[in-house]
Design goal:
Layout: E1 7-10, H1 14-24, E2 28-31, H2 37-42, E3 50-53, E4 63-66, E5 69-73, H3 78-82, H4 87-90, H5 92-97, H6 104-107, H7 112-118, H8 124-131, E6 135-139, E7 144-148, H9 149-152, E8 153-155, E9 158-159, E10 166-173, E11 179-185, E12 195-202, E13 205-211, E14 218-222, H10 227-240, H11 251-273
Helix pairs in contact: 7-8, 10-11
């Protein structure tokens, strides 16, 4: 299929992009890497009248450490963050999750912020941002605001972004002395996850984030559980997620994956933390 007709603007600055959004509102959409959005255009699931390309804006193509957080600009490609020499030391969970995101070819075009803007419940970057209690930095002509990742993603491919706003950056907290684990099950490597699990273990307890099951990433925090107590907690979590059934997997299979993959990533994080 081909997309419906639209106009195109290549913004030379964030201010120019925001002026277009303020003028056009819901008729305009931001285009970054386009690895998710172009498919939606081709299938006519999205029909904007105007696309605003932000990929030539140099101020948005930055990775910076600011006050204990790694701030990733809206034009930073996934491949650039994956190749950042400080990634494993500063954001070990993201370092584990990014290789599961698409393929080499799509990571060379797709952006970190674009994946989070798309808010697919099976995607690795929204899951990682929620697991790490990260934030989304939104900007309009009138103001800037910062939204917790858990509040930004409101449902399946739905977010708290207003029509006149764009994602300027996302920020991941840098947390030392934690253990991390990440795994997912998909039909093929690079496909969207049937179930993805991210675990963070610290002296305070266990955090498990699950994607691909509910309509957005979900998180549970537990004390240092083990044995049957951990199995019981995972079982409760699996049922609380209200797993969906589709052509890829049954709800029962997804619940079983939460139990098994969830336990595996927690054990991986515990070993990393030891």
């Amino acid at each position: 299929m081909k997309p419906a007709a639209f106009d195109y603007v290549r913004a030379s600055s964030a201010e120019e992009a925001l002026e277009v959004l303020a003028k056009e509102g819901a008729d305009a959409r931001i285009l970054a890497g386009g690895q998710s959005f172009m498919a939606m255009l081709n299938m006519r699931l999205a029909r904007p009248k105007l696309l605003v390309d932000i990929m030539r804006i140099g101020s948005l193509d930055r990775i910076e450490e600011i006050e204990g957080e790694i701030v990733v600009g809206a034009a930073v490609r996934q491949a650039k963050l994956l190749g950042w020499d400080k990634l494993k030391a500063k954001l070990p969970l993201v370092a584990l999750a990014l290789p599961w995101t698409g393929h080499v070819q799509t990571r060379s075009r797709g952006t970190i912020c674009g994946s989070i803007a798309h808010a697919d419940p099976s995607a690795e970057m929204p899951l990682s941002l929620v697991a790490l209690s990260g934030s989304v930095h939104l900007r309009s002509l009138k103001k800037r605001r910062r939204v917790r990742a858990a509040d930004y993603i409101t449902g399946m491919m739905n977010t708290a972004r207003a029509d006149e706003e764009m994602i300027e950056a996302v920020s991941f907290p840098v947390v030392a002395e934690h253990g991390y684990g990440f795994r997912e099950i998909a039909r093929r490597h690079g496909d969207f996850a049937i179930v993805a699990c991210a675990a963070i273990v610290s002296s305070k307890g266990i955090r498990l984030a699950v994607g691909g099951v509910a309509d957005r990433p979900e998180v549970r925090d537990w004390p240092g559980l083990s044995g049957s107590a951990l199995d019981d907690a995972l079982n409760r979590f699996a049922y609380e997620l209200d797993a969906r059934q589709d052509v890829h997997a049954t709800a029962r299979y997804r619940r079983e994956l939460v139990r098994r993959v969830g336990r595996a990533v927690i054990e991986e994080a515990v070993q990393c933390h030891s």
